[in-house]
Write a structure and sequence with these properties.
About 45% of the residues lie in helices and about 15% in strands. The longest helix has 25 residues. The model has no long low-confidence stretch (mean pLDDT about 90).
Length: about 500
Amino acid sequence: MLGAASVAGYAPLNWFALPVLALAGLFVLWLKAETARQAALTGYAFGLGMFGAGVSWVYVSLHDYGMMPAPLAALATALFCAYLALHPALAGWLLLRLRLRGHGESHWPMLFAAPCLWVLSEWLRLWMFTGFPWIALGYSQLGSPLAGLAPVLGVYGVSLAASLVAALIALALCRRGMTLLGAPAAALLLIAVAYGLGRVAWTEPAGDPLTVSLLQGNVPQEMKFVEGRYEQTLETYARLAASQPAKLIVMPETAVPRFLDTVSPAYLARLKAIADNNQGDMLLGVPARDAAGRYYNAVIGLGGGTAAAGGQTQSYAKSHLVPFGEFIPPGFGWIINVLKIPLSDFTSGGIDQKPLKVAGQRVAVNICYEDAFGEELIRQLPEATLLANVSNVAWFGDSLAPEQHLDMSRMRAIETGRFMLRATNTGVTAIIDPRGNVSARLTNFSEGALKGTVSGYSGATPYVRFGNHPVVLLCIVLLGWLALGPVRRRNR
């Protein structure tokens, strides 16, 4: 129940205090646990509730759009949530092992150990089996002062601060290690420090402001690859592109649902003419393939930016692919017969791709859920002055996923101190400022072009320079110090 309740702290409700209170409840249960096994089972139950409620939209993707039979889709979703719940279970088990190996009945080490283990369990999810960093605790704090830590330590630094507050609450409730007055005072001090860091201007505007137009075609996923719909889709995006003249026009992921080499040259010339008339550029989402037959989920540049690139067409190919949706892991070839997903065997782009030089800016393009991986996105920084995410979240329907995905983009904007432009097929299409505020957005499941004015930014936040390494190292060092504490006392 605590795990499921914590999901209300994430988008779209954003009750940011609730996940902290729910985690404090979990910490209290861990404090009262008598064995590591009991703590692991408690953490597992919390994880089942959190992921069962928070990522239930996986079923929508598998069944409604992947055409997987309902019983099999439900089973696959349940198994996926069961796997994710292993991470908080592992944190609980390790916490009790630390306590049982020398700390006796003392609970004060929990002030550091439980938050560190929680954050490391989230970080483990970031890269295990290609990674699934959805609903990390830090994302729930976008509306709280703790988000001020994001430019310094990233989303996992925010998770650490929020879990420290939860630990202080748990210790006060159990009257262990801190007085009822001391715990709130320590929590308020932590919040004040985070708020102060959030006021620091880590980056500064670079170049002239530019107008942008972000296109949302609202093409139903079930119609995207239907024969006869292709021409209508192309006309929709050409019309939207011409409706809102802007220096930079951005289309969603696979806006053109055919390989680039099969798209009519006349249509591409039409789009380029629109960009040239605006004395700007256009970013077009389209699958592309090479001479060897490998194909990529790509974004190409059209317009004057090609001259800046020496006449070569600029492009970005998605690097972090979605398992089963964009590539089939070894040993799972049979699943192609179950899932009816077009273009499900993409090739990954390189990890050393450079920002695209368009509209007088350097744009770090990321595709779909690549913006969930902050440490991968900063590879293109500090050179990049703008961030642009192109997505097709229609795969998840009217579920929690689109709003949760928006919050990931908001966190990336804060971490990097740059505007984030989001162009999606069905929403959420939005302009996000360097403070993570949504300055403009389109209504979900509507057709339109979102026009606004943004600035490029230069400079580097501490997170851009060091990524997740400081917070992970901090957690490991603190846990090592706690684990060696009994040894130090015996050797005195």
